Amino acid sequence: MTKDSNRPADGVRSSYRQLAAEYDRRWARYNRRSLALLRPFLADRDAGTLLDLACGTANLVPLLAGWGTRVDRYLGADLSPEMLARAALRAGRAPFPAALLAADAAAIPLRDASADTLVSASALHDWADPAAVLAEARRVLRPGGRLLLLDWSRGRATMKALNLALRIRRNPFHRMYSADEAESLLAAAGFRVVAQERRAITWMWEMMVLEAIRPGA
Fold this sequence. Notes:
The chain is of the alpha/beta class. It has a single domain (3-213), classed as Rossmann fold. It is 40% helix and 27% strand. The protein is built from nine helices and seven strands. A seven-stranded mixed sheet has the order 3-2-1-4-5-7-6, sandwiched between helices.
């Protein structure tokens, strides 16, 4: 990466360095309600090698165990060393093999076609170059592998207002997408979208979940 292209990632890294100590307490309700939207896509399913991209403090790990998701190996990748330090506590208690990676989402240190399932929760809005991240996601997923993209949805008026307010503040937030825009990003990256859902988790906050497949044999 050039120095200029590093600046958005540096802003995200700095923000989460400051937030890490209070993240689980401050965002507990949001994490619980938003991640619950992934349950229908993962419960009692074979996930194989699962990459949790922008895993934060690995809140997904105990949920996978509780949902009966069959995980051969969990890999949590995040840009923030401080968040990963807290994620290590959950990864260490996982009932399946688990490892953590310090990585930019646009440069995942995994070989081609090494993951069966890729989950990204509440990260799309921070990506300065979502096309680059989704290209990496496609690269590391095996043909036929699944991508589950969970993020804020710019659908209802409250979310449009939040999008505007956060874009004025800029750092680290980049932009909020509508579900149709997110689907277009996935299609442009070579994914086949098979499901799209929007769901409110509070009176104000609306989320979207998109399930996509990497085509291939």
